[in-house]
Structure to design on (264 residues):
């Protein structure tokens, strides 16, 4: 049974459904627009949606806000600020509210981090995905490992809390290579890491490559060994799993993530 303070948790999720390019493994609600995006129009739509949702749900105290995507780090900080102001107009906001924004780890996006902090964001989650340039290329990523780690360093300076994502069980990934990569990642991490096993999603370019025999991912035994070494290394480093793919020091779990897992 949830404790009283858990029962009262209330999170607001804001989805930004655009990316600069589509990664070949991803089936998220994310789209590439080649024409300029009318961000002011999107903002008006978010404000209308927040007002409608608040009318339906009624008074609550917001304990977490999460800007997910897509790539929310393509939003102007002023847009993020206006959305946060609208949330605060319609609901009360807890004094220790967690406000997370997902970011792609490029230098352009890292330049906006101070603007997001000024807008009220207090936590970022970066999609690093791999610390190996060849693997990043195969994942269709537009950044190098060095650029991603530079963005992590900016996040460390600007935000009290940050996390980053890695994808494992990638093509031809051996357990020893992943263990070494994970140890390097932990040295760069603070209190939270998201470690996702690669899932081949239907109707993605990776699914087509796999069907054509051009993409081989670890078999189940190897995937299991990769999962187990992940648990061992993270637990030994003080970052145990608090759900299937997310690891944190005790007390540093992503509160918004817990809202879902506790069905709040
Ligand atoms: C919305 S993205 C994070 C922010 C940003 N769009 C980025 O990619 O850097 C959410 C995360 O889900 C993970 N993900 C997406 N598709 C996946 C897949 N098919 N298998 C495993 N992880 C996946 C990636 O680690 C990604 O960083
Ligand atoms: S992984 Fe992130 S950047 Fe890549 S397409 Fe999906 S949402 Fe966009």
């Amino acid at each position: 049974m949830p404790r009283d303070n858990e029962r009262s948790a209330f999170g607001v999720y804001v989805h930004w459904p655009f990316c600069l390019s589509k990664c070949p493994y991803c089936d998220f609600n994310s789209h590439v627009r080649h024409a300029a995006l009318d961000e002011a129009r999107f903002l008006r739509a978010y404000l209308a949606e927040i007002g409608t949702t608040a009318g339906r749900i009624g008074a609550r105290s917001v304990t977490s806000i999460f800007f997910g995507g897509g790539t929310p780090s393509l939003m102007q900080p002023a847009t993020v600020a206006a959305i946060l102001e609208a949330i605060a107009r319609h609901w009360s906001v807890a004094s220790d509210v967690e406000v997370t924004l997902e970011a792609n780890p490029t230098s352009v996006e890292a330049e906006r981090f101070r603007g997001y902090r000024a807008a009220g964001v207090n936590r970022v989650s970066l999609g690093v995905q791999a610390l190996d340039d060849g693997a990043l290329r195969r994942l269709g990523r537009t950044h190098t490992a060095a650029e991603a780690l530079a963005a992590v360093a900016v996040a460390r300076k600007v935000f009290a809390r940050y996390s980053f994502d890695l994808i494992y069980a990638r093509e031809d990934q051996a357990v020893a290579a992943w263990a070494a990569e994970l140890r390097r990642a932990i040295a760069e991490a603070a209190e939270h890491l998201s470690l996702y096993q690669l899932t081949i999603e239907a109707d993605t370019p990776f699914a087509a490559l796999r069907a054509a025999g051009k993409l081989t991912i670890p078999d189940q035994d190897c995937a299991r060994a990769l999962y187990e070494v992940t648990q061992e290394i993270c637990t030994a480093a003080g970052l145990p799993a608090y759900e299937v793919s997310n690891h944190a020091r005790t007390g540093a779990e992503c509160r918004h993530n817990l809202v879902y897992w506790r069905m709040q």
User: Anything to note?
Assistant: DSSP finds eleven helices and seven strands in the chain.
